[in-house]
Automatic annotation (TrEMBL):
Protein name: Heparinase II/III-like protein
Tree of life domain: Bacteria
Family annotation (InterPro entries): Chondroitin_lyas
Length: 597
């Protein structure tokens, strides 16, 4: 929105009616719509979409659905309907008016109708009779229905009727059904907007307004509540759908801000920074292709050179054909805006330094060097969806040479990895700091004692374990504290790191660097478990012509097992990933300086 927000403020768009757009947004929309009418179609892209969609249809026909196998997710079935409908209804496709596809789409729709419950929902994985998962299915089915609705091909009445039956049944679930997570609200709203565009019903609009009345959260960093690459792409797509189909262009202001943020979160090779996510993708590899349709729509609509550059970059990725071209034709056919040529080339500077204070995340780009600093985990750190808990505090790239992450762990009461309590920025220096506390406990006072010893099962105040000890009634003693401070100074892509770990003496300290698997390592010693130790001097990591230098090293112990904390090791779990692992080790009080370049 155009009004200033205070830190952490909610963007509230509640109770918006179809006629409730802000005047400035209406002008914004009309200006661009009037110019976009003159835009030519991107015929070359459309040819590629048709060609790749036809190839996908061929693969679907060569791998028919086996009705004897019970599915636990129906997105692949829904996607196949969309892909086949697009080729069947596109006059340039090799499958145009294909009777075989009519038959196959009918079979696929029957699968969905058979699986659909009387309340209109479908199952998805462990989610039983799930309204939001059904909404994700409608993301595919409604564009297919729109394409078929406009088709002049004969003999499609039965197919159209089946789609209508499925959609209207699902619509009842969308009107009354509940959700699990923040993004589900907007996915359901988008589904309702899609259904309403096909089969108008005021009940759909009322339900959309009921969800929108809760407000769409976005902080000053440009993040939605889940701070997730997966779900930001989902929400942006949903808001674009609502803006477009319900004539609510003010929703695009939010999309604009989030897409701007993800410009800075994108690596030159299309990888997304996910370390600060509060959902499952904080430990996943994601590509920016998830945002392609969103960037393209907004580039055409706003002519923002940043978005234009993102479209061009994504179209140049090696994964573009598989991720986008093979399954997106239907969305271009259903939304003519996407078919238009994007404006002139984007010209955004490749060098930047961007600090996202609310996320405690910094992104810096200096030519071939791209780096990420992170210190924004939720406290206390908990391993659960909805909370940020990734221990990676530094990621560094120089072309194809990639430091996937740097972590620090100590043996202090086996409390695991360093997890900074935010980031303080002082000029070109970033300061990360954490204090861990571990306690001992005194005998219970007389008034809390029980003859049978059957005390309350409770969590220890330091969060390390549970026991029938009634910890809340005990006095803490012999309290131990450990403070870790990491100061990182950046100068034209060169990092100077200063580590300080202070507290009880003789605690093992381990700095862990994980480089991209298959990289060539020199200067470090390899042990029998394929771990490298940088014992002194400098090390070098190379991939092709690109290199990263790091050091000096230090090696005072070789214990690099169980760095994750008791939370993981008790369950035989680990956060260790694939890659070339290099360690620097010492004991407290630990003071070490090193350079990465």
């Amino acid at each position: 929105m155009k009004n200033k927000m205070s830190r952490g403020e909610f963007i509230r768009l509640g109770g918006l009616s179809l006629a409730g757009a802000l005047v400035s947004d209406v002008v914004f929309a009309n200006d661009f719509l009037s110019e976009n009418k003159k835009s030519k179609e991107d015929t070359e892209l459309m040819k590629k979409l048709i060609l790749n969609n036809d190839a996908k249809v061929t693969s679907l026909l060569n791998k028919p659905y086996d009705p004897s196998i019970r599915l636990n997710s129906f997105r692949t079935v829904a996607s196949s309907i969309t892909v086949m409908a697009a080729s069947m209804c596109n006059s340039e496709s090799g499958f145009y008016k294909s009777e075989i596809l009519v038959e196959k789409i009918n079979e696929a729709i029957e699968v969905l109708l058979k699986a659909q419950y009387s309340d209109g929902t479908l199952d998805a994985g462990g989610n039983r009779q799930s309204p939001p998962d059904t909404a994700f299915i409608l993301e595919y089915i409604c564009p297919a229905a729109a394409i078929l609705k406009n088709s002049k091909q004969k003999g499609l009445d039965e197919l159209k009727d089946k789609l209508k039956k499925f959609i209207l049944n699902a619509g009842e679930a969308m009107i009354t059904g509940g959700i699990h997570t923040p993004n589900h609200r907007w996915v359901i709203c988008a589904a309702l907007a899609n259904i309403n565009s096909l089969f108008p019903d005021t009940r759909y609009i009322r339900r959309i307004d009921q969800w929108l009345a809760e407000g769409i959260y976005m902080n000053e960093d440009g993040h939605y509540a889940e701070r997730s690459g997966i779900y930001s792409a989902v929400i942006d797509k949903a808001l674009i759908t609502m803006a477009r189909l319900l004539n609510r262009p003010q929703l695009l202001d939010i999309v604009n801000k989030n897409l701007t943020t993800y410009f800075y979160y994108t690596e030159p090779n299309g990888d997304l920074v996910t370390v600060d996510s509060k959902r499952q993708d904080q430990f996943m590899d994601l590509k920016v292709t998830n945002f392609y349709l969103q960037y393209r729509y907004m580039a055409i609509r706003t002519k923002n050179p940043m978005f234009v550059q993102m479209v061009e970059m994504i179209e140049g990725l090696s994964t573009f054909a598989a991720d986008i071209l093979s399954g997106s034709l239907a969305f271009f056919m259903e939304n003519e805006e996407l078919r238009k040529q994007i404006p002139a080339e984007g010209a955004i500077a490749n060098d930047f330094e961007k600090f996202f204070a609310l996320s405690s995340l910094a992104r810096i780009r200096r030519g071939k060097v791209s780096l990420t600093l992170f210190g924004g985990n939720d406290k206390p750190v908990m391993i659960v969806s909805g909370r940020s808990s990734n221990p990676n505090f530094l990621m560094y790239r120089k072309g194809d040479a990639i430091l996937k992450y740097m972590r620090l762990s100590t043996s202090f009461f086996r409390m695991g990895y360093f997890s900074s309590e935010g980031i303080v920025k002082e000029g070109n220096k970033y300061i990360l700091k954490e204090t861990k506390e571990a306690d001992y406990y005194q005998p219970l006072a007389e008034e809390f004692r029980k003859n049978d010893g059957d005390y309350k099962l409770s969590e220890s105040p330091d969060g390390r374990f549970w026991n029938k000890m009634d910890f809340d009634s005990r006095v803490k003693s012999n309290v131990k504290k450990q403070t870790t401070t990491i100061e990182i100074t950046e100068d034209n892509g060169i990092l100077n790191l200063d580590f300080k770990v202070e507290g009880p003496p003789n605690v093992e300290v381990t700095i862990e660097m994980c480089f991209k698997e298959g990289s060539n390592v020199t200067g470090a010693v390899l042990d029998e478990k394929q771990n490298y130790f940088l014992k002194s001097g400098n090390g070098e990591l190379s991939t092709g012509a690109d290199t990263i230098q790091f050091g000096p090293g230090k090696c005072e112990h070789l214990n690099v097992e169980n760095l994750d904390s008791e939370v993981y090791t008790y369950h035989q779990g680990s956060l260790r990933t694939k890659g070339e692992h290099i360690y620097i080790t010492g004991f407290t009080p630990f003071y070490h300086k090193m350079v990465i370049s």
